[in-house]
Amino acid sequence: MEFFPFLVTLLVVLRLFSLSATSFAVLHNDIIRPSDVLRDNHNDYTDTANLLVSKEGRFVLKFFSPYDLLNHRYLGIWYNHTTYIRPVWVANRCKPMEDSSGLLSIDNKGNLVLFSEENNSKREIVWSTNSSKQAAKPLVQLLDNGNLVLRDEKDANTTNYLWESFDYPTDTLLPGMKLGWDLKRGLNRRLSSWKSFYSDPCDGDFTYGIELDEKRHTYPQLTVRNGSAILYRQGLWDGMSSSDAVDDSIFNSVYNDDEVYYTYSLQNKSMMPQIVLNYDGTIEPSWDFGTFYGAIPRDKCDYYGFCGANSQCNVVSVTEEPICQCLEGFKPKNQDNWNSRSWSEGCEPYSPPSCHDEVEEEEGFEFDQYSGFRAPDTNYSWVTKTKDESECRSKCLSNCSCMAYSYPFSESIYSNEDCIHWFGDLFDIRQLSSSRFEPHTYIRISNSKIAPKIHNETRADGSRGKIALL
């Protein structure tokens, strides 16, 4: 992935953008009450009365103009006392104000409302929390985790917030934010990119979140989409950590009947971490300003379905092209194209699975275990409950369309009975450099009584080899 040009662009615009974005807020005024009005001071950050600053001064809510677009005014949350060139959250991201007439206050219904005042008389609503819940004494507070909350003055219980910005993220995931689903409320918290890197915060082409289909009982997985098409995935999501997440030691995942999400935290409070979905679809983790962990996708194998169906992708080193291999018991759909390193058509089985519900060895098929690989795309999966792995395996054998299974919680610290079955072609399998939380996947193949198990390999130098497993 060519990430260095992106970093160069970031550094070039840093100085220019910081002229209109740098905060010098010192007053810790973290609350707005119905009698208060926050006014656009047109980047006069010495006017601390019109800045909302979290209690410990970590975050600030302020009006801003991106880069050189002075006639586009937005309201956003920023890390305070830094030269971060973009906010971590934007209220009116697709509806900028044309001048500095913005006003922020609590209306008579208890909602936080952003107005644009025309000629000091007519007010136009630009953005609102639009909460159906009302409080006897509403107030708005900017917390030190960057969460802007609407709550009752006498109730600081986090479960009773009337509205919170963490439920409506823009392009940035902060520590403590939940990326995923509140199934009871039907709320999908996901990131959406900016339209451009530094000038247009409106929703861009890319989204990042947890996908699952409750009606089809698919298993959750992390994906980045370009419109409706999957750009890349982050592997099988097993309630602990994505298999190739940035740093599994700080991530926590929840998967139950009410919620499906992941979140992260850092012990070092002096750091200013964020995970950003960039305008070009890359995910950029940063634990402190100017310190980047490394963008995702990292290589061509990260891109969805690079090797086609029923195949696996492997990158030997960052300087080499990826290697595509058919899964054991599968062959290229088009041998000539495969030989020329055109892999998108993928592979097909030597012999389709039998549909007889008998012992697999007697019927000529078996399961091949894959470890250290990203599991197939779970959009083609079905999750069911079984008492153990043996029952999970038997249920797959009894369905001639079942091509693979996994019983992930047999290998995790959680007690669960989830059995995952995949149907039809298997997509987007890649070898992983680290697979601490990636469970074994068992892929259904014909055994040697019906067809030889052939290992199809395209080597780094372009030559091919076949290894018969006897």
UniProtKB/TrEMBL annotation:
Residue ranges constituting the Apple domain according to the UniProt record: 355-446
InterPro entries reported in the protein's UniProt record: Bulb-type_lectin_dom, Bulb-type_lectin_dom_sf, Pan_app, S_locus_glycoprot_dom, SLSG/EP1
Endpoints of the signal sequence: 1-25
Keyword Disulfide bond: yes
Any single biological process term in GO: recognition of pollen
Matches recorded under Pfam families: B_lectin, PAN_2, S_locus_glycop
Keywords assigned by UniProt, alphabetized: Disulfide bond, Glycoprotein, Signal
Ranges where the Bulb-type lectin domain occurs: 29-163
Function description: Involved in sporophytic self-incompatibility system (the inability of flowering plants to achieve self-fertilization).
Protein name per the record: S-locus glycoprotein
